[in-house]
Amino acid sequence: MRLIIFACCVLAAAPLFAHHSFGAEYDANKPITLTGVVTSIQWTNPHFYFFIDVKDQNGNAANWKFEGYPPVVLNRVGWKRTETMLPGDTVTVFGWQARDGSNWAHSRFVTFAKNGNKIIASLAVVLAVLVTPVSIMAQNKKALPAVPRTAGGHPDLSGVWQPGSDKPGTWEEANQGVGVAEPGQGGSVRKGANPAYQPWAAKLVLEAYNRRNADDYTARCIPELDLGGLSLYPNQFVQTPNLIVILIEVRHAFRLIPLNEKHPEDLDPAWLGDSVGHWEGDTLVVDVVGFKGRLKGSKINTDALHIVERFTRVDYNTIEYSATVEDPKALLRPYTITSKYMLRPGTRLQEYVCENNQDPASFEELDKKGLITREK
Length: 376
Prior knowledge:
This protein is mainly beta. The chain has seven helices and 17 strands. The strands form three sheets. A nine-stranded antiparallel sheet has the order 12-11-10-9-17-16-15-14-13, with no helix packed on it. A five-stranded mixed barrel has the order 2-3-4-6-5. Strands 1-8 form a two-stranded antiparallel ribbon.
């Protein structure tokens, strides 16, 4: 099994991989490599932090703070809380420094002096080219079990699935043990997320770009429908005759989809909207309305947002997904997103709660220093 990784500055794509904007806090033009001794570790959501003492040529120590992915992701890339990194360990860290030049950085790789291991700490600005292992190629060729069906004859969607992927196998097999953010066999699996905004909404999106998405709702841990994306985190489908539940690991979100029912007449607007579903042959069709408006960040919508999703389990391993999005108050025309969900046997969802979200406060400090807004 081989992994070839190319690091590059794809900052516009960072919100797909993390819950906040990499570019708002860190400067991709400031790569750093530091060696020091671990002084403390914060194994917290939505980010993992660790601190190291780094000595200069005169022996004076400065304490540096490094950010990494949340524990649920680190577990899947090989980290073990009680043994991988401990206070007193000597480590060499490669990453990118904070925009304000302080002793704060976003970690990419950590190399441990005690065993020589080099482990990924974050994937926020990485593109990966993967060589498919023999076991996966063999699985592609062998006969698959039939699509399981419920007593009512509908395809059974129950199970743990990875969105935005097209590779079969366990999580470790399909992601080569590192849970990379772009696990498609031939480029991006999720396609079509190109909304045509009305001028007033396009202006807000441009403002968000110029502020590096520091004001995005997800930076405040507010959930959103990822519409077949965010492949670092699994989804679990629980299917009953009258209700389908989708448990979404990231942001600790869930969706309740009653079948063959109408939307309530007295809907309270919600970040994930209100979902109802029905079967059209072997396709689960989900109608979603009742959204709260989002008037900041890179994804603008009003209370008129209406989404129709389609889930079709085309074989044992694969759910074909599409979402048609319309918002007559914000969009010039509807658009359609397509993606896939791949079955991940043996994967369990873990707790992800924004218990230690430091992003809003850090954004405010950087904004005061004039470091958020892009130079014109």
